């Protein structure tokens, strides 16, 4: 992984259009139309579940989807609102309103652009997998819990936002279940599950919406007993024009208040979009520019709030639909956005007739697909530390919120990682004789005789704050006789951090006060540079920083022999 060198900010669309052909255009148009149709019910459902109107969900899919394809670094990525953001958006609206959501989304966009400019596109992929699985499963369960009211037709208002109180209200009101609404939800669920078994290319969610909506309209029109709540009943007539851009008022107090939410949106958006791009690359053989992809995602999230939109990220399901239908360039993603725009302009009034129970069924299936229960089952055979990270992240996501879950999950993963590194980093002590090639694949054995009074300590691994104290304690506890010279062998030390450097400085000064010389061995060039910047070379003398153990032993033996000779005299 490299974060140096020239930064390539060129969107994939530019290179895709160089050798573009009519045949490729035809395939991208077909894929874009199919993805646009598939994205329609999801955009509506995600918008409603997030606490905004279906119009906002559509606007987000149109503008955000276009921006991601136009500016992104992945050839086949489809952007738009996703299920992962439902809970975040809902909670932000509950606390700060739509204005707060718009500002947080724009701030998240700026953070994403900064991540791309600082070449963090590769780094973000190294967020521990158990964290991703934990909060994804937690989001899935939370999404499912938000749809119970509409699926059962309970018609409850003022439902608690917290998971446990919410389910307490549900159980207390199960007797209010509307059987007609439940039947509509079950039929919708059956269609969504059954259609892919006939053909995986058919969009089960869209077919369910069309069939159930038409059937519900006919029954409610020609019978006096059939009644089920629809989108139009809840939201009224919806506009069919793209909202006029509006300004955002931001000050430092607002930034400080919304920064945690913006950070959560940015991190989750980066993770989801880059995971989607990685999966897509594995299928298509293409190569995503991770940094450019983050910048494209950032531009999309900076833009959509000015039109009232919600956060945008790469959508794995829609991206896979794009690939399976022949899409191979960002043109397909642009076509998908145009298809949604045409539906928005000319067919939006028909959306008013869609039953809320049908949208609940769409989201329940989405939650099931997000849950990743098979992955969770496989992770149960992993080390206990990974299981702990996953479980804690899952529970925090469900019981509290995703912001806390990501922050504590990352902190826990870092702590456990450092513990593993400390456990795997050995600090060895030698005296008398030393095999130069011990711990290597070399068949040769070169044994050095270490003079009396010379102690050798080898750090086998990175020398950072987690190891510094352990090394200091070990060195002070070994060898009953006080040494004359301490050799610190650093051939396997790839880097030294500030804390380790500080501890090393204290150790050298303490040793010198006791009359003990310190010699460093096997120092790599980058580590030597760090030592020089910290003034360690001036503290012990440049001649006591050796690039090989043989030179260090010769130097130490000479110091020890002169010391013992002086004692005899």
Write a structural description.
This protein is mainly α. It has two domains: 23-416, no CATH class; 426-568, STAS domain (Transcription Regulator spoIIAA), CATH 3.30.750. It has helices spanning 12-16, 22-49, 54-71, 86-117, 129-152, 163-172, 179-198, 204-222, 231-235, 252-284, 290-303, 316-324, 330-346, 348-351, 356-371, 373-379, 384-399, 402-424, 465-477, 498-513, 525-533, 536-540, 549-568; strands at 79-80, 313-314, 426-430, 433-435, 447-449, 454-460, 485-489, 517-521. The chain is elongated. The two termini are 58 Å apart.
Biggest β-sheet: strands ordered side by side in the sheet: 3-6-7-8
In what range is the share of β-strand residues? 5-15%
| Number of separate structural domains | 2
Largest β-sheet summary:
4 strands, mixed
Counting DSSP H or I runs of 4 or more residues, the number of helices is 23
Overall morphology: elongated
Helix content: 55-70%
Mean pLDDT: 86
Q: Which class best fits the helix and strand makeup?
A: mainly alpha
Euclidean distance between termini CA atoms: 58 Å
The radius of gyration over CA amounts to 31 Å
Low-pLDDT parts are 1-5
DSSP E strands, number: 8
Q: What is shown here, in short?
A:
With 569 residues, the chain is mainly alpha-helical. It has helices at 12-16, 22-49, 54-71, 86-117, 129-152, 163-172, 179-198, 204-222, 231-235, 252-284, 290-303, 316-324, 330-346, 348-351, 356-371, 373-379, 384-399, 402-424, 465-477, 498-513, 525-533, 536-540, 549-568; strands spanning 79-80, 313-314, 426-430, 433-435, 447-449, 454-460, 485-489, 517-521.
């Amino acid at each position: 992984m490299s974060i140096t060198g020239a930064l390539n900010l060129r969107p994939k669309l530019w290179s895709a259009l160089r050798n573009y052909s009519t045949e490729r255009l035809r395939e991208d148009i077909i894929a874009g139309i199919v993805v646009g149709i598939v994205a329609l019910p999801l955009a509506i459902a995600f918008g409603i579940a997030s606490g905004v109107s279906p119009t906002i969900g559509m606007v987000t899919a149109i503008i955000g989807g276009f921006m991601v394809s136009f500016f992104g670094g992945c050839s086949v990525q489809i952007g738009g609102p996703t299920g992962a953001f439902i809970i975040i958006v809902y909670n932000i609206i509950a606390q700060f309103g739509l204005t707060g959501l718009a500002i947080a989304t724009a701030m998240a966009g700026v953070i994403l652009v900064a991540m791309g400019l600082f070449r963090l596109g590769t780094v973000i992929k190294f967020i521990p997998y158990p964290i991703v699985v934990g909060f994804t499963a937690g989001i899935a369960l939370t999404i499912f819990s938000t749809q119970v009211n509409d699926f059962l037709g309970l018609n409850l208002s003022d439902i608690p936002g917290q998971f446990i109180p919410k389910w307490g209200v549900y159980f207390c009101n199960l007797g209010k279940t509307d059987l007609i609404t439940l039947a509509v939800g079950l039929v919708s669920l059956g269609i969504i599950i059954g259609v892919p078994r006939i053909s995986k290319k058919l969009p089960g969610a869209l077919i369910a919406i069309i069939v159930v909506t038409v059937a519900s309209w006919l029954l409610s029109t020609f019978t006096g007993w059939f009644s089920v709540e629809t989108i139009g009943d809840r939201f009224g007539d919806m506009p069919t024009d793209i909202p006029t851009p509006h300004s955002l008022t931001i000050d430092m107090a607002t930034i400080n208040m919304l920064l945690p939410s913006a950070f959560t949106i940015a991190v989750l958006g980066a993770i989801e979009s880059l995971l989607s791009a990685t999966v897509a690359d594995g299928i298509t053989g293409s190569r995503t520019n991770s940094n450019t992809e983050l910048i494209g995602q950032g531009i999309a999230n900076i833009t959509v709030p000015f039109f009232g939109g919600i956060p945008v990220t790469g959508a794995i399901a829609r991206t896979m639909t794009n690939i399976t239908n022949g899409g191979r360039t960002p043109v397909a993603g642009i076509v998908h956005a145009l298809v949604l725009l045409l539906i928005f302009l000319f067919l939006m009034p028909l959306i008013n007739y869609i039953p809320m129970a049908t949208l609940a069924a769409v989201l329940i299936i989405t939650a099931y697909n997000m849950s990743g229960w098979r992955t969770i089952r496989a992770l149960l055979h992993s080390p206990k530390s990974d299981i702990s990270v996953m479980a804690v992240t899952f529970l925090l996501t469900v019981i509290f919120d995703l912001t806390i879950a990501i922050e504590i999950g990352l902190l826990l993963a870092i702590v456990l990682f450092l513990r593993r590194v400390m456990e795997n980093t050995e600090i060895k002590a030698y005296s008398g004789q030393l095999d130069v090639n011990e711990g290597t694949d070399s068949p040769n054995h070169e044994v050095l005789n270490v003079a009396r009074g010379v102690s050798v300590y080898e750090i086998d691994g990175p020398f950072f704050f987690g190891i510094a104290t352990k090394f200091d304690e070990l060195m002070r506890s070994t060898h009953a006789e006080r040494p004359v010279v301490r050799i610190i062998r650093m051939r396997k030390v790839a880097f030294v951090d500030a804390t380790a450097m500080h501890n090393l400085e204290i150790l050298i000064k303490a040793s010198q006060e006791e009359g003990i010389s310190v010699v460093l061995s096997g120092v790599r060039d980058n580590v030597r540079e760090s030592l020089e910047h910290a003034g360690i070379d001036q503290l012990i003398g440049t001649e006591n920083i050796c690039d090989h153990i043989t030179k260090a032993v010769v130097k130490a033996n000479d110091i020890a022999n002169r010391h013992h000779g002086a004692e005899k005299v």
